[in-house]
Write a structure and sequence with these properties.
Blueprint: H1 14-23, E1 28-31, H2 45-54, E2 58-61, H3 69-77, H4 80-106
Parallel strand pairs: 1-2
Helix pairs in contact: 3-4
Length: about 110
C-alpha cells in the first residue's frame, strides 16, 4: 500500500521541507499547484524538481489538480460560499490525486 502525505511550504524553507520529506521516507512529491511558481527561493517548479531529484525524490506536477484561476480569485475574496466551493473541489482533488498517484506508480 502507498501512503500519501500532504505538506505545505508556507513558513519553512526548502532545506527544512526536504529534511521532513526524507525523514518520513517520501519517494515522490506530487505538486498540485495549477501554477508552480513561488516567490520563495527553491519552490518554483524547475528549482524544486532539481533539488528533489538531487535528494533522490521524484517530482510529478499535476496541473489539473491545482486551483483554477477563478478559484484563486475567489479565495482572495474569501466568502462563505467560496469556501464551500473550495471544499467541494478539495474532495474531488483528493480523489483525483489518489487516482493519478496510482497511475504514476503503475508506469
Amino acid at each position: 500500500m502507498t501512503t500519501v502525505y500532504t505538506i505545505g511550504y508556507e513558513g519553512t524553507d526548502i532545506d527544512k521541507m526536504l529534511a521532513t520529506l526524507k525523514a518520513v521516507g517520501v519517494d515522490v512529491l506530487a505538486d498540485v499547484r495549477a501554477v508552480a511558481l513561488s516567490r520563495k527561493k527553491g519552490f518554483s517548479k524547475t528549482a524544486l524538481r532539481t533539488r528533489l531529484e538531487a535528494e533522490g525524490i521524484a517530482y510529478a506536477h499535476f496541473v489539473e489538480l491545482g486551483d483554477p484561476k477563478a478559484g484563486r480569485g475567489a479565495a482572495r475574496a474569501f466568502t462563505v460560499s467560496t469556501i464551500a466551493v473550495q471544499l467541494q473541489q478539495g474532495a474531488y482533488a483528493s480523489s483525483r490525486l489518489a487516482s493519478l498517484v496510482r497511475n504514476f506508480f503503475a508506469k
